[in-house]
Amino acid sequence: MPEPGIDDALLRVKQFLQENTPFLQGIICSYVVKMGLAHAEGVEAVASEILQDAVFEALAHAERLEAGIQPRAWFLGIAANIIKRKRVEAAKRQQREVWIVDAERDFFDQFAAYAEPGKKLEEDERVNEMLALVSKEDQEVLRLALLHELDMKTVARILHVTPGTARVRLHRAIHRLRIAWKAEGEKHV
């Protein structure tokens, strides 16, 4: 059976959250903007996710809310820590994406060099032959990202997936195309 102090703290946290959720959502939205985690239409979604994570964490650790501490400051401290963790995750993800984009750009340069000079890549028969080595799904993501040079958010929107999923699909499509292209080249040797 839990200690009476823990039950009181949990009750206090629950009551605070019930009474202040819209207010907390607004504060977290401002934190998200200030910390650069999202802009424009993405702010509400990111703030909602952070609020949800903070509520879960606050309820899981309600016993840490001491009697003399204001729940608002305690809860916003939890939210701020979650935001800091998300910023670190985003920085690491961006660093990986830059490396992936650079690797993909090197491949695109090879891909473009394979095309006939003076022809648009999309119309080039040699490029179309190369793309025919992979599935229709791979062709689509390769065309969007490499031929049309669309950013991952736009590619994701067109494919009706998340940007992370679009990056993974592109990375895998490039990998499959490289393997197929190499195999095709070995046939002609």
How do you describe this structure in short?
This protein has helices at 4-34, 42-60, 71-114, 125-131, 136-147, 152-159, 163-187. The protein is mainly α and 189 residues long.
- Beta-strand residue percentage: under 5%
Give the SSE order as H and E letters.
Answer: HHHHHHH
Judged by helices, strands and strand pairing, the structural class is: mainly alpha
Number of helices: 7
Give a structural overview:
- This protein is mainly α and 189 residues long.
- The chain folds into two domains: 4-91, Rna Polymerase Sigma Factor, Chain: A (Orthogonal Bundle); 115-187, Winged helix-like DNA-binding domain superfamily/Winged helix DNA-binding domain (Arc Repressor Mutant, subunit A, Orthogonal Bundle).
- It has seven helices and no strands.
- The chain has helices spanning 4-34, 42-60, 71-114, 125-131, 136-147, 152-159, 163-187.
- Helix 6 (152-159) crosses helix 7.
- It is elongated, with a radius of gyration of 25 Å.
What distinguishing features does this structure have?
189 residues; mainly alpha; Rna Polymerase Sigma Factor, Chain: A; Arc Repressor Mutant, subunit A; 7 helices; 0% strand; elongated
Give the helices and strands, then pairings.
Elements: H1 4-34, H2 42-60, H3 71-114, H4 125-131, H5 136-147, H6 152-159, H7 163-187
